[in-house]
Every structure is written in C-alpha cells, then in structure tokens.
Amino acid sequence: MAFTSIIFKNPNTGAIKEAPVGFSWTVFFFGFFPPLFRGDWKWAVIMLLLASFTFNLSSIVFMFIYNKLYIKDLIGSGFKAESIASGDMSFASSRIGMNIPQIDAA
Predict the structure, then answer these.
(1) Dihedral pair phi/psi, residue 100, rounded to 5°
(2) Taking a C-beta distance cutoff of 8 angstroms, is the pair 92, 46 a contact?
(3) Helix (H, G, I), strand (E, B) or coil at 69
(4) pTM here?
(5) Which helix (H) or strand (E) holds 22?
(6) N or C of the chain: less Cβ packing under 10 Å?
(7) Is 36 left (phi over 0), alpha (psi -120 to 50) or beta?
C-alpha cells in the first residue's frame, strides 16, 4: 500500500501536524530522533531509555507501532483530522484500529 499521511489540526489552538500511518521508516533509520523532532517528548524519552537498556532492540518494536502511538496522542490532545494526503480515512482508521475524529465542514 502507498504511503498514507493524515493532516491533523487542533481546533482550539490552530496547530497543524502531519502524521504518517503504518510502518515508521524514520524510526527504522533514525531511532528516537523522529519523536524528538516532532516535539513528541514523551515517546522520545521512552524510546531513548528503552534503546539504552535493550541495546537498541526495542527500536524493532517501535518501527511498527510508533506512528500509531503518535496519532493516538494527537487525538488525545484534541487534534482532529483535517485531510488525508493519499488514500482514504476509513483505510487509515482501520490501520490504527480506532475511529479518527474529523473536523466538521463548515
């Protein structure tokens, strides 16, 4: 399947974030740096600590789950899907395993 990315917007603050869906190639190549650059401090620290204690073996697990964790944290922080770069929202929802709240069209 092609690369799918969701554009999220926080209706309260106006902040916009892009979140890829599925396997995290950036975590595969760069470890804990993607969450660090996304401002996802919680997962950056967790991934760094676990990588330190497991001689980086924990990164194998995070390659498969990090994007899902990031999207769930965005939704928990009040972000809603504004658009999807490619694919459709129902496919992305099924990949994440939860309904993705969307911004209502005005």
Answers:
(1) -95, 120
(2) no
(3) helix
(4) 0.90
(5) none
(6) C
(7) alpha
Q: How far apart are CA 44 and CA 11, in angstroms?
A: 25
Virtual CA dihedral for 40, 101, 89, 28, nearest 10 degrees?
A: 10
- DSSP class of residue 86? S
Which two three-digit tokens encode residue 24?
């995290």
How many angstroms from the chain centroid is the CA of residue 83? 15
Spell out the long-range contacts of 37-46 with Cβ–Cβ below 8 A and sequence spacing 24 or more.
Answer: 38/70, 40/70, 40/73, 42/73, 43/69, 43/70, 43/73
Neighbours of 14 (CB within 10 A): 7
The residue written with tokens 């964790």 in the block is 69
